[in-house]
Design a protein that fits this description.
Layout lengths: L19 H5 L15 H21 L5 H8 L3 H14 L6 H9 L3 H8 L14
Length: 130
């Protein structure tokens, strides 16, 4: 059984996300002793539910700063907003970045920044040992 893999970005680097076409053609399987493989509709529903749960989690964790997410995970709320907008555009639904941000942040972006943005909370070690 072939499972989908995700490329890990090099330290300090970024990997461009796969296009929806690449993701749609990747076989995603649940290996429970080889018992089941998700059909396309189930996979779509599971992915949508996981996305909604991630967005809700990020909305509930306004104490976690975007810069910290970016430093630790290589993506942030703004990345999710841009990916959402790009996916809508690919399907012929033009939404602007502010609309996508409001969906991800749960409020207008400027309001979120005013209420929650404080700067990085995580101290990273200096680069190159310096």
């Amino acid at each position: 059984m072939e499972l989908a893999t995700t490329e890990v970005p090099p330290k300090g680097g970024r990997v461009e996300p796969a296009t929806d076409l690449e993701l749609a053609t990747t076989e995603v399987a649940i290996d429970m002793d080889g018992a089941s493989t998700m059909d396309d509709q189930t996979r779509l529903e599971v992915e949508a539910a996981a996305f909604r749960r991630l967005v809700a989690h990020l909305q509930s964790r306004s104490d976690v700063q975007n810069i910290d997410l970016m430093n630790l995970a290589g993506f942030c709320r703004n990345c999710l907003s841009k990916w959402y907008r790009a996916a809508a555009d690919e399907r012929g639904h033009a939404i602007d970045l502010e609309q996508a941000r409001e969906l991800v942040y749960g409020m207008p972006y400027e309001q979120w920044k005013a209420q929650h943005q404080t700067g990085p909370k995580l101290e990273l070690p200096p680069k190159d040992g310096g």
